[in-house]
Amino acid sequence: MDLRFLDEAPTAVEREAVDSVLGPPESGWDGGARQDVDLRYARGGHTARDRRDLLMPALHAVNDRVGWISRPALDHICRRLTVPPAEAYAVASFYAMFSLRKRPRRVVHLCTDIACAAAGSSGLRDRLAERLGPPGGHDGDTTWHESPCLGMCERAPAALALEAGAPARYAVAAPAAPGDLDALAGDASPGSAAPVSANGHGAPSPTTFGADPLPGAAPEPAPSAAVPDAGSPGHVLLRRVGTVDPLSLDDYRAAGGYAALRRALRLGPAGVIREVSDSGLVGRGGAAFPTGRKWQATAQQPDGPHYLVCNADESEPGTFKDRVLMEGDPFSVIEAMTIAGYAVGARLGFLYIRGEYPRALRHLENAVALARERGLLGPDVLGSGFAFDIEIRRGAGAYICGEETAIFGSIEGYRGEPRTKPPFPVEKGLFGKPTAVNNVETLVNVLPIMLMGGPAYAAVGTGGSTGPKLFCLSGGVRRPGLYELPFGATLRDLIEAAGGMPEGRTVQAVLLGGAAGAFVRGDELDIPLTFEGARAAGTTLGSGVVLVLDDTADLVATLVRVAAFFRDESCGQCVPCRVGTVRQEESLLRISAGADAAAEVPLLREVGRAMKDASICGLGQTAWNAVESAIDRLDLFGGPDRAASDDIQQSTAAGDRAATEEAR
Amino acid sequence: MRSDDFSAPYDRLTRPLVRDGGELRPASWEEALDRAAAGFRRGVDEHGPDSFGMLSCARATNEMNFMAQKFTRVVVGTNNVDSCNRTCHAPSVAGLAAAFGSGGGTSSYAEVEDTDLIVIWGGNPRFAHPIFFQHVLKGVRNGARLFVVDPRRTSTAEWADRWLGLNVGTDIPLAHAIGREILHAGLANDTFVRRATSGFDEYRALVEPWTLAAAEAETGVPAEAIRELAHAYARAERAQMCWTLGITEHHNATDNVRSLINLALLTGHVGRHGSGLNPLRGQNNVQGGGDMGAIPDRLAGFQDILDPEARAPFEAAWGREIQGTKGKTLTQMFEAMDERELRTLYVIGENPVQSEPETEKTTRRLRSLDHLVVQDIFLTRTAELADVVLPASASWCESDGTFTNSERRVQLVRKALDPPEGARDDIEIMCDLATRLGVDWSRPSAEEIWNEVRSLSPMHRGMSYARLAELHGIQWPSYSEDALEPSYLHSRLWSEDPAERGEPAPFGIVGHSPPVDLLDEDFPFRLTTGRRLDDYNTGVQTGGFSSPLRRGELLDLSPEDAAKLGVADGETVRVTSRRGSVLVPVSVTEAMRQGLVFMTFHFPHQVDTQLLTIDATDPIAGTAEYKAAAVRIERVEEHAGSAAPAP
C-alpha cells in the first residue's frame, strides 16, 4: 500500500459527492487542505483502512453525481480511504456501471438479453443508434449501451435511463415502444455542475434517486403490475404487493407487518432457527440449501461479530421476483432481515442490491430510514434489547457479485471475485467473519414461517419442496409476470395460469433457471416444478425462471446471447472460465454463421466440461449448462455425438449458479 | 528529468591488481599476495602491530568475519578490527550492552507479529527493511497498532495509526517527555522498575523538566500526540520498540538508544514474549560480524576484550596472547591516519570512500597510508586507491557459511555458484596471506571454522551445522545442542529470584544535545539522509539493476519550500553545507515540511551527498551524524539547470 497520488485536484462537485459519503476530511493527509499541524502529526492506519468498505459507495457517489469518475476524483477517494490508486482503479474498472472516461450524464441501458431479444429489442437498438450514434459514445448529452437482463422481463423489451445529478434520477420504458425510447434518449436535464451548498456539504438526500422521473418519460407502472393475479387470496409471499403503499410503514403494519418479528423475539434465536429448520425452507436463490442449517451453522460460530447479508443482486437473466418484492413490499425484506440477524447473532446486516434497480433501492432506503425512525432497527429493536441495523450497498453492474462469496468482496470494497471454499461463509464470510447470506425471497419466506409455525409451513407444497414459490414467467405466454404457486404445480399448470400461448403459437422450448439453467422441450410440460421433480427430470429450478420460447424463437441466437453473457460476466480470475466462456461463444458464433455444427459440438463439450470441472465458482461451472441442454435435450444441432457425452450426462442435473457451491 | 540508470554496472574483478608507478596493473595471485603480505609485514616491523587496521565485511559470512578478526588478533596482533557496522548500529549494540549486557535486539520477528503495539522510531523499514516490514504488516493485520516517529512522513508512516513528525535530533526530548508522562499518569510498571532496574530516581529527576509543553516546543510534535504515544505504549500489554538509523546516525547516538531503552525499562516492555527492543539491522550479516568479534572491543560471543578470563580460552586456542586493550573503531582508524598512527589497512568488502562522511577527507586519509589492500568483488572507489586489489568471491552465493540476521538467528548459507575464474574465496585469501606472514592455517572448511567459533563462544555452542540445517536456523543464545532458548532475550529480568535476575538494567541518564551542525541564516535547511526502496547504500550492488522507481539522486523538498524558492519538481538546485556543495535535482513531496530536506547516498557518481554531511561522531560508538546537516539551497541559472550534472 504505497500511496502515490497525483497532483490533480478534484472539482468541488466531486469533492462534495465523496464527502457526502465519507464526511469531511480530517486533515491534509486525507484530502483536506494541508495545515501546519499536518506536518507534525497524522492519524491513519486501522481507522483509515477499516473504512475500505466505503470505496464502492464513494465511487457510486461520484458516478451518481457527475456521471463518471475522473482521475482526480478517484485519487481523492483513495486519499480519503488510504487505498492505493491502482487498487481503486482495479475496483472501479471491474463494474460495468462505472465509467472512468468522461461520458454524458444520462445513460440509457437497453436490455438485449433473452426475453427482451425475443420481444424485439433489436429494432430498439437500431432506433437508439440512429438517434445517439454507436453505443458507448462519449459526446453529447446522452449515451447508451446494450445491457444484460434488467429484471423487467415481464414487460419486455425494457430500457432504463439513469441520469447523474443531485439527486440522480431514472426512468424506465417497458415495454418500450420506439416513442418511449425517444423520451429516454432525450437530452439530459439542465446541468447541475455547481456544488449543492456553498460550504461544500449538501444536505444528505434521504434516497439515492429522486422521486421524480426524468422529464418527458412516462411514469413507471406500479410494482404490482408485474403480478397479473395481484390481490389473489392464495398469495402468501405476494399478499401485500398491490394492496399496501410500499412507502408507508403504517400501511405495512396495518397489513400484519412486524407481527413476525414480535413472534421471533418471543421465540428467541434458537427458537427461530428451530422453526425455520422445521419448515423445510431451502434457499430460493438457486442453491436450495436448507436455511435452518445455514443459520444454525452461523449462529454457533465462536468467532465474532456475525454478519447477515441479504443477496439482492438479482442478475440471473429472466429473474425479477426479488425486484417485485423489494419494490412492492420493501418492509417485509427489512423485517425478515431483522429476524435473520436475530437468529444468527448479527448486529449488522448488509443488503446488497444490484445497481440496475433504482426503484427498489429507493423503496428500501425509505423503508430502512422509517424503520430506524420507529425503533424497528437500531440499538433496541422493539424494546427487546436486541441491536440490529442494516446498511444498503449497491452493486454496479456485475452479475458475478450475486455469487455468495463475490458479494463479500464487493461489499468490502474489492473486485467482486469469488473466493475458494472452504472456508464457507458460515465460518469466514464478510470481513472474514461468520456470515449468513440469503436471497431476498428466502428471507421473505421466514415471515409466514414465524406466523404459521414451521410444521404448518412444511405442510404446504410437497415433501421435498415446502412452502410457496415465486416463478418468473416470461417469453411467449399471454400474461408474463410473477406467479406465486405452492410447490407441486407442473410447468403446464404455470403456463396455463398465465393464459397459455397466444393463438397459433406453440412452445418450442422452456429455459428453466435462467442463463445458468437448462432447456426443456415443449413436450415436457408435465415436469413438476419442485426441486425433486426438476432433478428427476434432469433439469433445475434455479431461481425460478421460466422463460418460454415459442416456435418463432431463434434458439441458436438465444444460445449465442447466453454465451456472450457469460463471456462478458466472467470475472476473469480463473482460467477455465475466463478462456472457456470465450471459446464457447466463438464456437456458437461459427455455428450461427453457418459452420458445421457436428464439428463444433465435440469442442463445445470439451470446453464445457473443463469449465464445469475446474472453475472455482458457479458461474464457470454452469456457463455451459444451457448450451449442453440445447445439444442433448433439444437436439438443436441434429444427430449429436453421443459418444463423448456419457460421463457428462451424469452431472446434467446441476443447473444453477450456486448449486454446486453450497452443497457441502 | 528522469533517468533509469546513473551508474553502469560494475564488472566483477577476476584478476589481482597491484600499483606500479602510480597505476594499478594486473598481476598474478602470487605476486599480489606477496606484495600484500610484504606491505603488512613492513608496517608491523616498523611501526608495531597497532599501525595495522582491518575493515571486515558485514555482508560476508560469520566464518569470514571470524577469520578476519582472528587474522587481526593472531597474525598481526592488534585489536584494530571493525566494520561498517560502525556507521549504522554500533550505538545500538553499545546502548543495549550497557543496559542488558549484550547488544542484540531482544525479540524475534514472530513476536512482532504477535504484539499489541509497534513503535518504529527513526526508521523507514518499508523502504530500508522490507523483509522486516512484512512481519510488521502481519502484526498490523493481527491487530497491532503502529506508531511511527520520524521527521518525514515516510512510506512506513503512511501505514501507521499515528505519525509523530519530530524535529531532526530531538529524539531524547521526545523520549523523556514520554517517560515523564508515563510516570505522571501512574502508568509505570513499578514492580519491574523496582526489581529489575537501577537508577530510577535519577531517571525520574532527569525527565521531570520535559513536560509535554516543553517537548512540543523542542520537538515540534503536538503535546496531545506525545501524550497519546506515552499512554498507548504504557498501556499496551505487549509492545515492540524498533529503531533504525534515525536514532543511531547522530553525534549522541548511544544516548538516543539509551533514552528509548529507558521507556522499555519504565514499562516492563522487555524480556517477555511480544515485548522488546529491536534495532533493525541493515546488512544481511551486520549482526553476525559483531557477534564474531570483528569489532575492536569484543571477542566472539560478545566477550569483553578487557576481561582476562574471557581472553584466556582464545589465547589458549590460538597460542598467542591477545592485547587486553580496546582496538580502534573504524572512525578512530580514520582519525589515526591523520596522525600517521595507522599505516596499513586491509579492507574486505567495504567502500568507505563512498560510505563515510566527507568524501574528500576520507580519500585524503586513505592516500596517506603506507599500504592499502582492498579485497572485493568489484573495483570500488576505495579499491581504486589501493596498493593491492584482491578479487574475492561473493560470500552469499559463492561460499558456504552462516549469516546472523536481525533477530539473532544464525542461518546456513550454501554455495550455489563457483566464483568467476580468477576470483578466490575470502577465507582462502586470508589463509594465504597468513601463511606468508608466518602463521600456517592451511585451509579450514567453513564448518571447521564454525566449530572453532562454537568452542570459543558459549552462546553459539549449541549450533552445529547439522542442527542449523534441521531447524532452519537457531537464535542465539544457544548454549547446548539439547535445548532451545526462548525467542526473546533477558527473561531473567522477570525472575522472582534475585540471584537469577542478576544485574539490574540501569536507566540511561542522558541529556539532550541538539545536532552539531547548527541552522543559521546562511544554512537554514536541515538535511537528513536515508535510503530509498530500490537502492542500497552506495549503489555498488544495486546500481547495476534497473528499477522503474529509480529517479537517481534527488533532494526531497516540501511544496511550501519549493514555492518559496521558486523551484519546480525535477529542477536542479545547488545544495551547500559548511563542508561542500553539490548540484541535485529537486523532488517536491508532501512527505517533507518547511525547512526539512532529504537525500540518499545511493548515487555517489551523480551526486556525492557525503560532501555535505558532517563527521561529528558519537563518542561512545563512533557513528557519524549523517542524519543532520545544515544546508542552503540555491536556484541554478536557467541554462545550467537544463541537464543533470551527472558525470
From TrEMBL, chain A:
Residues 556-601 form the NADH-ubiquinone oxidoreductase 51kDa subunit iron-sulphur binding domain. InterPro entries: NADH-UbQ_OxRdtase_51kDa_CS, Nuo51_FMN-bd, Nuo51_FMN-bd_sf, NuoE_dom, NuoE_N, Nuop51_4Fe4S-bd, Nuop51_4Fe4S-bd_sf, Soluble_ligand-bd. Pfam families: 2Fe-2S_thioredx, Complex1_51K, NADH_4Fe-4S, SLBB. It comes from the Bacteria. Residues 184-231, 642-664 are annotated as: Disordered. Keywords: 4Fe-4S, Iron, Iron-sulfur, Metal-binding. Belongs to the complex I 51 kDa subunit family. PANTHER family: NADH-QUINONE OXIDOREDUCTASE SUBUNIT F (PTHR43578:SF3). This is NAD(P)H-dependent oxidoreductase subunit E.
UniProtKB/TrEMBL annotation, chain B:
Residues 12-435 form the Molybdopterin oxidoreductase domain. Residues 525-629 form the Molybdopterin dinucleotide-binding domain. Pfam families: Molybdopterin (PF00384), Molydop_binding (PF01568). Keywords: Iron, Iron-sulfur, Metal-binding. Coiled coil: none annotated. The keyword NADP does not apply. InterPro entries: Asp_de-COase-like_dom_sf, MoPterin_dinucl-bd_dom, Mopterin_OxRdtase, Prok_molybdopt-oxidoreductase. CDD domains: MopB_CT_Fdh-Nap-like. It comes from the Bacteria. This is Molybdopterin-dependent oxidoreductase.
